[in-house]
DNA sequence: CACCTGGTGC
């Protein structure tokens, strides 16, 4: 090879490397300068360099220029097509990516594993189960479904299309599972609401040889948050600290942690994590601000929102509309307080959600296990003891506080004498009963934490107020709308919810 | 050469 040709090839490789660096670091200006230089030097029609240009322009948000480069090419290979498809997806147009896929097929260029995973991503983004299945089918026929990256994309495609079972069976048959396969499956379970399954998978992952990364933790923390599994979440928090995963600099982990503590009614811990973040993302602000609002602490919520507005952080439409909701609630509460006299006559607090089709369900975490209860549920092996302790609590409350049931909250289609029984077996009460029987008190916090899928019933609300008084412990009840923190006979919601 | 995975809420 003569020196001249060698230096030309060397030059070409230097351009390519620099372009890839520009793509990675989103350096549009520098990328454009390289583009100009290589056109001048006669590299304008070079296949590899043109591909790199498409990638660079796509990543930097200049899809029009990427398309121009693509259109002017004398020949295009699978990389050119795939790079442009990715560009469309990255710029928010997955449909165009799918159209390109069919154009590519017509042009006679054969797709590879990268093309398939890109297309599966587009299907997932579009919620396109039908076309996703077709792509999956083609992958099977061409043998690409056994390629790890493609398999991962199939898992993600099915879970994005709401087909968690199909995602799971893909995960099962994957010949090689890597970190991303596990992460995709855990995220899939979490998004689909199968948080317990997500946690089971996470534990399996910990037991195995697999590494864990920030994606694993964010998804798993989200699962803990949705479940209210604070013990498990705490362990992950501790693991993050000992494992050197600094959430002070990792936005996603910090947000997930704040969300966990907020959803468990631990605003103090949420605030602590928040204060440790170096660059506070608008999402972490949102989580904390709404957390305070949902706990009934409107003052702190408003104050934080004011701080956010005074900071240099750009607020988004999401937090603005959320704050509208907070202001609306605040106004309602103010009105509600003025209307207190009426509230006694008006069936205030009648639980409209008990009329809904959805069955009331409560749960509580005891020794890292989540126990679920439905209203009138006697499936739990400790049911008898639960009833005993609840009766005991009623007796003490009557004696010490003169508490009697407000029977009006009971279901209406039952015999009068059995209304007391109905009230006793509301799911939130059963969950609390179990916590009392099993010592579900979180010793370090002196709190019992219960979750309910519907609004907490007015009678149970009174009952828990009483419990917090006579037992001298706090209760945190997260219902469908908000938090109730009961302490010393009072609730943070001020009885308006 | 490129491709896959994550966070706030209603």
TrEMBL record:
InterPro entries, per database record: DYW_dom (IPR032867), PPR_At4g14850-like_plant (IPR046960), PPR_rpt (IPR002885), TPR-like_helical_dom_sf (IPR011990)
Highest taxon in the source lineage: Eukaryota
Coiled coil (residue ranges): none
GO terms, biological process: RNA modification
Molecular-function GO terms, alphabetical: RNA binding; zinc ion binding
Gene3D superfamilies for the chain: Tetratricopeptide repeat domain
Span of domain DYW: 402-497
Pfam families: DYW_deaminase, PPR, PPR_2
PPR repeats: 77-111, 178-208, 281-315
Keywords, comma-separated and alphabetical: Repeat
Family recorded in the similarity comment: Belongs to the PPR family. PCMP-H subfamily.
Classification via NCBIfam families: PPR
PANTHER family reported for this sequence: OS03G0644200 PROTEIN (PTHR24015:SF739), OS07G0578800 PROTEIN-RELATED (PTHR24015)
Protein known as: DYW domain-containing protein
Protein's organism: Salix udensis
């Amino acid at each position: 090879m003569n020196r001249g040709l060698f230096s030309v090839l060397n030059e070409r490789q230097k351009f390519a490397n620099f372009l890839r660096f520009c793509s990675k670091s989103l350096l549009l200006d520098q990328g454009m300068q390289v583009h100009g230089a290589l056109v001048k030097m006669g590299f304008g029609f070079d296949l590899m360099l043109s591909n790199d240009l498409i990638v660079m322009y796509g990543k930097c948000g200049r899809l029009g220029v990427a398309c121009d480069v693509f259109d002017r090419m004398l020949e295009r290979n699978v990389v050119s097509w795939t790079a442009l498809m990715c560009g469309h997806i990255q710029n928010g147009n997955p449909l165009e990516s799918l159209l390109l896929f069919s154009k590519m097929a017509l042009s006679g260029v054969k797709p590879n594993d990268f093309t398939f995973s890109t297309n599966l991503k587009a299907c997932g983004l579009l919620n396109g189960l039908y076309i996703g299945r077709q792509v999956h089918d083609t992958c099977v026929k061409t043998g690409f479904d056994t390629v790890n990256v493609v398999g991962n994309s199939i898992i993600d495609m099915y879970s994005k299309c709401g087909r968690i079972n199909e995602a799971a069976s893909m995960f099962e048959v994957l010949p090689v599972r890597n970190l991303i396969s596990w992460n995709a499956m855990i995220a899939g379970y979490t998004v689909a609401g199968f948080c317990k399954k997500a946690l089971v998978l996470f534990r399996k992952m910990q037991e195995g040889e697999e590494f864990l990364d920030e994606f694993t933790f964010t998804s798993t923390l989200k699962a803990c948050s949705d479940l209210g599994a604070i013990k498990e979440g705490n362990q992950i928090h501790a693991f993050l600290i000992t494992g050197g995963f600094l959430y002070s600099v990792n936005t996603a982990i910090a947000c997930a942690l704040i969300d966990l503590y907020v959803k468990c009614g631990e605003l103090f811990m949420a605030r602590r994590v928040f204060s440790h973040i170096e660059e506070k993302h608008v999402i972490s602000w949102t989580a904390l601000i709404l957390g305070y609002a949902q706990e009934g602490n409107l003052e702190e919520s408003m104050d934080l929102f004011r701080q956010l507005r005074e900071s240099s952080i750009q607020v988004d439409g999401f937090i603005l509309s959320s704050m509208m909701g907070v202001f609306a609630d605040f106004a309602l509460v103010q009105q509600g307080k003025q209307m207190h006299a009426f509230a006694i006559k008006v069936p205030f607090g009648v639980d409209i959600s008990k009329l809904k089709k959805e069955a009331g369900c409560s749960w509580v975490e005891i020794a890292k296990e989540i126990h679920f209860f439905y209203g009138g549920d006697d499936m739990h092996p400790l049911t008898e003891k639960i009833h005993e302790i609840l009766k005991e609590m009623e007796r003490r409350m009557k004696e010490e506080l003169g508490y009697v049931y407000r029977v009006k909250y009971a279901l209406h289609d039952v015999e009068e004498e059995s209304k007391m029984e109905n009230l006793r077996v509301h799911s939130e009460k059963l969950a609390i009963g179990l916590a009392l029987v099993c010592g579900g008190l979180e010793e370090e916090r002196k709190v019992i934490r219960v979750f309910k899928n519907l609004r907490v019933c007015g009678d149970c609300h009174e009952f828990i107020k009483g419990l917090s008084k006579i037992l001298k412990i706090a209760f945190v009840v997260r219902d469908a709308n908000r938090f109730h923190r009961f302490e010393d006979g009072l609730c943070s919601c001020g009885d308006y919810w």
